[in-house]
Amino acid sequence: MALVFEMRKVVLGIETSCDETAVAVVTSDREILSHHIYSQIETHKKYGGVVPEIAAREHLDRLDHLIKEAVFDANLSYNDLSAVAATSGPGLIGGVMIGMMAGKTISATYGKPFIAVNHLAAHVLTPRLTEDIKFPYLALLVSGGHTQFLLVRDVNDMVELGTTIDDALGEAFDKTAKMMGLPYPGGPYIEKLATQCKNPALALESFPLPKPLYKKQGCDFSFSGLKTAISRYIQAVPDGAQGEGISQKDACNLAYAFQNTIVAVLKDRLKNAIMMARQQSKTEITQMVIVGGVAANRAIYDGIKEMALLSDLECVTPPLSLCTDNGAMIAWAGIEQLQQGISHSLSFPARPRWPLSNLSQNNAQNISLGIYK
Ligand code: AMP
Ligand code: MG
Fold first, then answer.
1. The domain spanning residue 197 has which CATH number?
2. For 311-330, how does the pLDDT look when each residue is reduced to its tens digit (9 = 90+)?
3. In which domain, by residue range, is 313 found?
4. Is residue 230 one of the residues assigned to a domain?
5. Closest by Cα among 369, 373, 359 to 114
6. Candidates 50, 124, 173: which one to mutate for ligand 1, based on the most atoms within 8 Å of Cβ?
7. Counting beta carbons within 10 angstroms of the beta carbon of residue 326, is it exposed (0 to 12), middle (13 to 18) or buried (19 or more)?
8. Is residue 338 in some structural domain?
C-alpha cells in the first residue's frame, strides 16, 4: 500500500475557520476519498449570525469524530497520509486554533508534513480540483466573510485586484434578509423571493436602490449604502403579512430589486477587474472562476458568466458542496503546496487576518519536506 501512495499524494484537510466543521481526504489525482461536513447553522440561527465562542466549542465537540470518520471512510490509516493540511487563517481565531492543533497533533504523531492553508487561497484553488483550470486566471470570491477579485498567477502568487470596503456580499444578503424577517443565512431566501417576483419592472420602480461604486474606477465593492436604503424602505412600507411588517408582494419586489442591483454592480466591477487582470498578467487570461457560497445564486452566476463571455473568458464554478466552506478545498490547497515542495513548521501561528497578497512571504516559514523522510 505504501508504494502506491508514494506515487500519488493523499492529504487530510481540516476546515474550522467559521461555522462549518469539515474534514476530507483528497488525492493528487483529484479524487475526493471522503468528505464530511458538520454545519453549525442550526446552532447559530437563533442568534441571527455566527457566535465565535459557540462556534469554537462546537468545533471542539465535533472535530475528532469527523477526522476519524474521514480517514476511515477513505479506507486509510493515518500512516497512509502524505500530509495534513489545516486552515490557518483568516477566520475566527478560536476555531482556527482548534483545527490547527488537531492537524499538528496528527502531523507530529505520525511524522507527516503539516501544511498551513490560507482559507481564501483554498477557495480560489478549488476549481482546479474539479475542472481543468490553468494559471493565470481571474477569481471572484463571494462568501459570507469575503468579496474579492483576484488575479491567480500561481499557487502562492495571487494579486488582490479589488475588495469590499465595508460588508462582504454574503453578509449584505444576510443582513438584508434579517431586516426582512427572513431566517439566517438569508441569501437563499432572498433568491427564492426574487424568483417569485411577478413584475420585475414594477419592483425596480417601487424600490430604486443605489449602486455603490458603479462606473467608478477599479473593482472595489461597497454594500453598506444599499443596506441603509433597504432599511428605510422596510420602515416605510405599510404593515403586511410577512414577519416584520412587510407584505409578501413587497418582499418579492424588494428581494428582486436588491438582487438585480447586486448583479448590475458585479457586472460593472467585473468589466474593470478583467481589464486590470489582463494588464497585470504576462500570460493571456482565458478563464475565470466564481467561488464562495454566494456563487450558488443563479442570477449572480448567470450575470457574471454573460459578462465573462463578452470578454472571451470561460467562466467556471465548482459544485456547490465545494463552493461553501469544506475540508476538500483545504486538502486540495495542501496538495497544491506539497507539489511545490512546501510544508510548514509546527510553530506556524493561527492568523485571524492573512491577506492573500502576503502568501509567498509566509513561505519564509517553510520547512523542507526532506526533514520527515
Ligand atoms: P460561505 O461564507 O462561503 O460559507 O457562504 C455562505 C454565504 O453565502 C452566506 O452569506 C449565504 O447567505 C450566502 N449564500 C448562500 N446561498 C446563496 C444564494 N443562493 N444567494 C445569495 N447568497 C447566498
Ligand atoms: Mg469561506
1. 3.30.420.40
2. 999 999 999 999 999 999 99
3. 137-317
4. yes
5. 369
6. 173
7. buried
8. yes
